[in-house]
Design a protein that fits this description.
Elements: H1 16-19, H2 22-38, H3 42-58, H4 63-72, H5 74-87, E1 92-101, H6 102-116, H7 126-143, E2 149-158, H8 159-185, H9 188-198, H10 209-239, H11 249-280, H12 299-320
Antiparallel strand pairs: 1-2
C-alpha cells in the first residue's frame, strides 16, 4: 500500500484556519484567486505572496506539504520564465556573447551523453541536473575559445521580460499555495458540505445540487484510493521486471497500457460496488435529506469574510480609479 501522503490530502492540526467554517474558506479562496488575477504591480504581487506565506505559517502545517503542489508545476514555471526572459522584447538588461567551437561542442556533447547514460545511477532530480549541465555547456562557450569557431551568437535578457516573468511565476505560485491551503486545512467531506450549502440557491433554477455535491464527494473520496491502487500496480509490475523508465517509445506505450488497463478495471469494479452499496442503503438521488455535518458561522468566520470582502472591494476601487496595482 502506498503510504506517501497524496497531494491535497487533509492535514490535521489545531489552527484558526482549521477551525474556520468550510464555506468561509471556499468563498475566501475564490475571492483571493480573483483578486490575484486583478493585480498587475510586481510589488503588490510580492506582498500577496508574503501574506500567503504568513497564512501558511499560521496554519501549523509543514511547508513541505505545500511543496508538492509547486513540484508538479516546476517544468511549466521554468518554461514560462525562459520564454519571458528571452522573447519579451524591450530594454536590454544583460547580454551574453557565445562562441561555439569544435572543442566546447565536443565537451558539451560528451557531458550530455554521460548524463543520458547515468539514469541507472542517478534516478532523482534528473530534470534539475539536466538544466545545470545545460547552463554549464553554455558557460563553456564563453570560457573555452580553443578549436575552430563554428558560430557566434548572443542572448539578451530584457528588463520587461524579467519583470513579467516574476509577476507570472509569483502569481502562479501564490494561486497554488492558496489552493493547497484550502485542501490541507479542510476535510473533503467538509468541502463537499460547504459547496452544497453555497450552491443551494441554484436548485431554484433547475440545478440538482445534491447530485452535483455527491459527485464531487465521490471524486474527492476516491482520488487518493486510485492513486494508492496505481502505486500497488506499479510495484507489482516492477516485481515482474517492468521498468517504466527504460525501453523505446513503443515499449513505454505498451508499459503504460499495462498500467491503464488494470486501473480501468479497478475503477469500474469500485463504481459498481459503490452503486450496489448506495442502492442497498436506499439512496435516492432526488430525495430531500439532512446532513450529519451542521455548519454554523461564528464570529471568526464573519471577521474573515469581512476582511476578504473589504480587501477585494479596495482592489476593485483602485482598479477603477486607474491606480497602478
Amino acid at each position: 500500500m502506498n503510504t506517501n501522503p497524496v497531494f491535497g490530502q487533509y492535514y490535521h492540526a489545531d489552527s484558526w484556519l482549521h477551525r474556520l467554517d468550510p464555506r468561509t474558506k471556499i468563498l475566501g479562496t475564490i475571492i483571493i484567486i480573483i483578486s490575484l488575477f486583478l493585480l498587475n504591480n510586481l510589488a503588490v504581487i510580492v506582498g500577496a505572496f508574503g501574506a500567503t506565506l504568513v497564512l501558511i505559517l499560521s496554519s501549523k502545517i509543514p511547508f513541505t506539504k505545500f511543496l508538492r503542489s509547486l513540484k508538479m508545476m516546476t517544468t511549466l514555471l521554468l518554461i514560462t520564465v525562459v520564454f519571458q526572459l528571452f522573447f519579451n522584447r524591450g530594454k536590454i538588461l544583460a547580454e551574453f556573447d557565445f562562441t561555439l567551437t569544435t572543442v566546447n561542442l565536443a565537451i558539451g556533447i560528451a557531458i550530455l551523453v554521460l548524463f543520458f547514460f547515468s539514469r541507472k545511477i542517478i534516478t532523482k532530480h534528473r530534470f534539475f541536473l539536466f538544466l545545470a549541465l545545460l547552463v554549464f555547456c553554455f558557460y563553456l562557450q564563453t570560457v573555452v575559445k580553443s578549436g575552430k569557431a563554428l558560430a557566434n551568437y548572443s542572448l539578451a535578457i530584457y528588463e520587461e521580460g524579467l519583470y513579467t516573468s516574476l509577476k507570472v511565476v509569483l502569481r502562479i505560485i501564490t494561486l497554488l499555495l492558496i489552493s493547497s491551503l484550502l485542501t490541507l486545512t479542510t476535510k473533503p467531506a467538509d468541502i463537499n458540505t460547504g459547496m452544497e450549502r453555497l450552491a443551494k440557491p441554484l436548485k431554484y433554477i433547475g440545478v440538482k445540487v445534491s447530485i452535483l455535491s455527491m459527485m464531487i464527494s465521490i471524486a474527492l473520496r476516491f482520488i487518493p484510493t486510485l492513486i494508492n491502487e496505481a502505486g500497488r500496480i506499479l510495484k507489482a509490475q516492477a516485481s515482474r521486471g517492468v521498468d517504466f523508465k527504460e525501453g523505446k517509445f513503443m515499449q513505454k506505450v505498451t508499459q503504460i497500457i499495462s498500467l491503464l488497463v488494470p486501473m480501468f478495471v479497478i475503477s469500474y469494479r469500485r463504481a459498481y460496488e459503490l452503486a450496489d452499496a448506495m442502492e442497498a442503503r436506499g439512496y435516492v438521488p432526488d430525495a430531500e435529506r439532512t446532513s450529519i455535518s451542521l455548519l454554523k458561522y461564528r464570529a471568526r468566520d464573519y471577521l474573515t469574510l469581512l476582511f476578504v470582502i473589504l480587501l477585494f472591494s479596495a482592489i476593485i476601487a483602485l482598479k477603477v480609479s486607474d491606480y497602478a496595482i
